TrEMBL record:
This is ATPase BadF/BadG/BcrA/BcrD type domain-containing protein. It comes from the Bacteria. Gene3D superfamilies: 3.30.420.40. Residues 10-264 form the ATPase BadF/BadG/BcrA/BcrD type domain. It comes from Actinoplanes missouriensis (strain ATCC 14538 / DSM 43046 / CBS 188.64 / JCM 3121 / NBRC 102363 / NCIMB 12654 / NRRL B-3342 / UNCC 431).
Amino acid sequence: MSARPALLAVDAGGTHTRAVVCHDGRSRSWELATMNRHAVGATADDVLLRLLSAVRHEIGDRPCVGWLASASVDPDEPAAELRRITAGAVRAGLDARLVVSNDVVPLLWGLPGVAGEGIAVICGTGSGFLGVDRTGAAARAGGCEYLGSDEGAAVDIGRRGLRAAVRAGDGRGPATVLTGLLADATGTRAPQLARAIAAQPYPKQRLADLAPMVCAGWLSGDQVCGGIVSDAVTDLVAGVRAVRDRLRLTGGYAVVTVGGVFAGCPPFHDLIESRLLDFEGAGQVTFTNTSARVVMAALEHLLDDRDEVALPAAISDRHAWIVSSAPAVVTRAEEEMCA
């Protein structure tokens, strides 16, 4: 009787990549930089290959079943990312069947309180929303990168904060503690900081890094920071409401939240939670900060007795896809791409 495949779970957000592999009664975890090309460009491919090579070294020739949830997966145009991940697995020598999805998807199956019905909210570097109802219908909102969405997330809060500091400095806006907070944290005055970030090829993460200063200003009572936080909360609630209304979810629906903004500023999450519970009909709001473990739980929830992943119809080939790097099924095109 052949041994069970190793199980791999990867949460690849806009800032970090966290992974865990389980085999032979033990587990191994990794934390690396982001593998999101939208955030760091081609260096994301190096991170992907490093991780998958480390997994291959850990499990040897054993087959692997896994779920790679990445902020860089565009549900409308997933093909390029599916090819990139497959190519990385082939180059690493990993015999794997992987579910590939956006990072919001496994939240709906990785927590007991949701279990395939509810709304998942990510608020980290970027933001996104995905919901599923009991009939299997799915709806999403956001997830279009920081030029098209990401409202309420770190990149949005940071950008608003930087702009507010610039406006305060030249007289177009009210005074704010952000002027000093940003200068102390970065060693640069707001106008020069704005120009320096704009000149970078991938400014998203630098903007997101400014969000904690906005939250700190808000907690100190600064009105400008308070306005930014209030707008962020409104935008995030609007994302939940849009998904709720499209799915026609009734009162008492579950919401699961995850992301660095919530983790880094619990009072911010408290605002979101109270708005959803008091005014938007949510029955429960559950925060989780163990993203790779949640991906693993979702994977285990959807495994059948043959250790195959049975994707629900609501997400199969629409929000999640299965790719394989097993030698028997790698296509010629994939081999040429990896050469």
